[in-house]
Amino acid sequence: MYYVSTKGKAPKVRASEAILQGLAVDGGLYVPEQFPYTSLQNLGTTSSFVELAYELLYPWFDNDILQPYLDQLCAEAFTFPAPLHWHNQKDSVLELFHGPTAAFKDFGARFLAAAMERLLDLQGKTLTILVATSGDTGGAVASAFYRRKHISVKILFPRNRVSQRQQQQLTCWDDNVQAYSVDGTFDDCQRMVKAAFMDKTLADKHALSSANSINLGRLLPQMIYAWKAAIEVLVQTGREPTMIIPSGNVGNSCGTYWAKASGAPIGNIKLAVNANRTIVDYLDKGTYEKRSSIDTLANAMDVGDPSNIERLFHLFPDYDAFKHAVSAVSISDEEIKATIKRVWEQYRYILCPHTATGERLRELYPSEEPSVVYATAHPAKFDSIVEPIIGSSIAIPPQLSDLIEKTTSVVEVPPDYRVIFS
Ligand SMILES: *Cc1c(COP(=O)(O)O)cnc(C)c1O
């Protein structure tokens, strides 16, 4: 099993090399040379999430040095469930927020951390991970890489520009994880990461890598819950569900397209985006124009130039194919608020602002087919937005309250990457 670059100018590699490299040498993203196919019959007796993950990921690691360790990696990474919550006989919500930082990014970050640690251990090497974060990613990465022996993590976030709870999740670590509060914007943080990667003298001293959503190791696990939910809906209703995915960098949606391409019983796939409507405009006009990002209530989806879009373009190479397979709808902040209120009143179910975009899409395009909205984060992470709307307080899940109680440590730095390596 090989992976090729979306730009087509880099050598093909095995899964492990793609995971350690992140980006291909030609600047493209790794995609499978050919999709493995898993038949539903073969999965017949698989019961637990870990077993399903192992069965599904096995062919993606064919002939790879990690393949013999895959069962351990899955058991280590996927220690929490991904249950379906049914509103009624056909509409359900896939709860992806039961991990340590209460957002779906825990699945990818934990698998990536387990895979990287194992690879570095086999090679006797160490690595420094640099992450610029505006919210959820940094917390998931910090939690997943905490106390790994071969990896140290440096997290950069823009000072006074993340929520109180988000900052807590970024700064409540010690040991191999250090958070830096940067006197600047998220773009400044990203610029620092890029500058560090380009500094050749620094590269001689530290092997650097990133853990953002373009890494294959974060994407692959996101296929598993799509499979699991689709199978459950099929068993329950006899039909293949439409998957509705709150999207930003479209990593989560890409995982679902890959699941479908490798045999998962999925019908349509629909992307809900916020006011950042780059993909919606592409579908309308046929020309792709990246934008600067706009701030919304669903801040983890505030992306003007989705990094994984290249993978979707590779899967659906011309406009007609893309338009046939991808639909996307832009949801405003007003609709997000109204939907949180409606779903609370209708079902007594609490949505986070991201998940609300998916529920609004379902409401706008009602269908006889069963559909699954991905619940990408726990609403308690966005208490200051959600509580006033539902007029009631949200119980904090235990994993979040553990993080909230930890003491924090942070280093304040100017927007210059050299300071964090001095
Ligand atoms: C990251 C994130 C998203 C967007 O996911 P992508 O894979 O970037 O499309 C949506 N909701 C939440 C809560 C997130 O953290």
Topology:
Layout: E1 3-5, H1 15-21, E2 30-32, H2 49-57, H3 70-77, E3 84-86, E4 91-95, H4 105-123, E5 127-132, H5 136-145, E6 151-158, H6 164-171, E7 177-182, H7 186-198, H8 200-205, E8 208-209, H9 216-219, H10 224-237, E9 242-246, H11 251-261, E10 269-273, H12 278-285, H13 309-315, H14 319-325, E11 327-330, H15 333-347, H16 353-364, E12 371-375, H17 383-390, H18 398-405, E13 411-413, H19 417-420
Parallel strand pairs: 4-12, 5-6, 5-8, 6-7, 7-13, 9-10, 9-12, 10-11
Antiparallel strand pairs: 1-2, 3-4
Describe the structure in your own words.
The chain has 422 residues and is α/β, with parallel strands linked by helices. The chain has a domain at 80-104 and 219-401: Rossmann fold (3-Layer(aba) Sandwich). The protein contains 19 helices and 13 strands. The chain has helices at 15-21, 49-57, 70-77, 105-123, 136-145, 164-171, 186-198, 200-205, 216-219, 224-237, 251-261, 278-285, 309-315, 319-325, 333-347, 353-364, 383-390, 398-405, 417-420, and strands at residues 3-5, 30-32, 84-86, 91-95, 127-132, 151-158, 177-182, 208-209, 242-246, 269-273, 327-330, 371-375, 411-413. The strands form three sheets. The protein has a six-stranded mixed β-sheet. It has a five-stranded parallel β-sheet with strand order 8-5-6-7-13, with helices on both faces. The longest helix is centred in the N-terminal third of the chain and has 19 residues, at 105-123. The protein is globular, with a radius of gyration of 20 Å. The model has no long low-confidence stretch (mean pLDDT 94).
